[in-house]
Amino acid sequence: MSPSDVFTGFLHVPWGDYAGNIGWGLARTLAYTVASFLGAAVLGLLLALMRLNRLRLVRLPAALYTEVFKNVPLLAIIFVTYFGLPSVGIKLSVFAAGVLSLVLFYAAYLSEIFRAAIAGIHSGQNEAAQALGLGRGTTFGHVVLPQALRLALPGTNTMFVDLLKSTSLLVTISAAELMTQAQLIASETFRALEVYLVIAAIYFAVCYPVSQSLLWLERTIQAGVPLSRGRRRRLRLARTLLAGETP
Amino acid sequence: MTQHAVNVEAATARPAVTIRGLRKSFDGRQVLGGIDLDVPGGRIVSIIGQSGGGKTTLMRCVNLLEQPDDGVIEVNGEAICAGGAVTCKDLARLRQRVGMVFQRFNLFPHLTAVENVVLAQMHAAGIGEREAVERAVRLLTRVGLAHRATAYPERMSGGEQQRVAIARALALGPTVLLFDEPTSALDPESTGEVLRVMRELAADGMTMILVTHELPFAREVSDWVVFIDGGKIIEQGAAADVLDRPREARTRAYVAKYAASG
Ligand SMILES: Nc1ncnc2c1ncn2[C@@H]1O[C@H](COP(=O)(O)OP(=O)(O)O)[C@@H](O)[C@H]1O
Ligand SMILES: [Mg+2]
Q1: Pairing with A121, which of A77, A147, B173, B227 sits 20 to 30 Å away (CA)?
Q2: What pLDDT digit, counting tens, does each position of B149-190 carry?
Q3: B22 near B73, Cβ under 8 Å?
Q4: What is the pLDDT of residues A123-162, one digit of tens each?
Q5: Predicted confidence (pLDDT) per residue in A160-172, tens digit
Q6: How far apart are the first and last CA of chain B?
């Protein structure tokens, strides 16, 4: 098949008929990505905090978890949760099994990133907060977490895009996301090359802007642009007072 | 060694901090071996001595960043710890009354100068946002940093950062300020800026406990100088006596060394 055959091959796929499939698949892909990422971030943060705990009894299970799930292929986790668990009476929907697998897997990686970020904050920060009478919760929320987020952002961004791409593995449990739709269209049109090239291009078209925006977010925060409304309001008030006006 | 912790003139002032029999060990190694010290209100007490002598630990006990093993500490007449137990019921309030300035500034790097001064006002002292910002701006102006109020710490010189740290501690209205080697990480110019601010605080009657190796400055501002070595007070007295006419050999050696190195 020559390159020009590939080009004319694109025209043999009735894309208009499949626009609905592709749109739906894209929506499913994004739903899996967002739900799994939120879950993985929460579990990852919990694991990170556990691994930084004083008590060995708390640290150990979290460390064990992280090592296990970092060293098992995602596909194996998907198969265990979807095909394996029903034999012990746990029957999950495709969506639940898909999200659970991604959460379990990515939480392990995110916990490593979060742990390093939190541990990377100088002990003097905690001391200063304590010496100012800030409680443990406030210290974590206003001093440790904002700094840790900045440190964790680059690694977390990489993981987000990685997770988005990994949702394509859910084709193995027919999750109705982009890759599953691609398989369907390819089998109906017998145009595997053209269809998979287009689907790959769609993944790229989603991932590239996402990773660029996350990069922009990193640079914006690095440049010291305050993102929260409260911070902007306080800075505005300070500037007004400094300018000697009555706000 | 004298047991008279308070000089005659200062004896009339109400004690801001009283320390009796303070002991602290780390991993079985004694770091403070029975410290008695009085800091009258409105006075400045300097603590000098070789590093490793226990100066930082002593300061950290006064705001309970470190829990003493034994002894009594009173702040403004209220016992905050006794016999190895913390008796202070409200740690946040204690730390509002006892401010601390660190050698390495420890500013919050993700916040601008003014936000550094605002944070604890709002989240520890429960002061409203508007009042907190107004007070922060006033204090930054007072330490000569109005023009740097919206800058981040990493864009500031060491001297500027330490002055922000002083404003941050002042914002909670402390009755006592603890300074732990506030100029040790600074170049001479920055040191001058910070000492100028501290001099003004002294003139305003702020009670201060100061750990420093800047002997000329200690000589100038302190009412009382305490020399600590090996976790014990070796010698204490009026600044001129201890620094110009030290009686103990160890004090003499220390004073000679730091007077020579400037
Ligand atoms: N948290 C700690 N754990 C163990 N040892 C400590 C701790 N803090 C201080 N020390 C030890 O206590 C001694 C006194 O330290 P420090 O109070 O910092 O002295 P200084 O401020 O006079 O240099 C040193 O030997 C130091 O290593
Ligand atoms: Mg020290």
Answers
A1: B173
A2: 999 999 999 999 999 999 999 999 999 999 999 999 999 999
A3: yes
A4: 999 999 999 999 999 999 999 999 999 999 999 999 999 9
A5: 999 999 999 999 9
A6: 27
Q: How many CB atoms lie within 10 A of CB A204?
A: 11
pLDDT of res. B108:
98
DSSP letter string over B201-259? HHHTT-EEEEE-S-HHHHHHH-SEEEEEETTEEEEEEEHHHHHHS--SHHHHHHHHHHH
Which residues, in sequence order, are CB contacts of A174 under 8 Å at separation 6+? A94, A180
Helix (H, G, I), strand (E, B) or coil at A39: helix
Which atom of ligand 1 is the closest one to the Cα of B231? 14
Phi, psi of B192 (to 5 degrees): -60, -45
A133/B115 touch (CB, cutoff 8 Å), yes or no: no
Q: What is the reported pTM?
A: 0.87
Q: How far apart are CA B49 and CA B15, in angstroms?
A: 24
Coil, helix or strand at residue B78: strand
> A242: which chain B residues are within 8 Å (Cβ-Cβ)?
137, 146, 149
Q: What residues of chain A lie within 8 A of the CB of B65, using their CB?
A: 127, 130-131
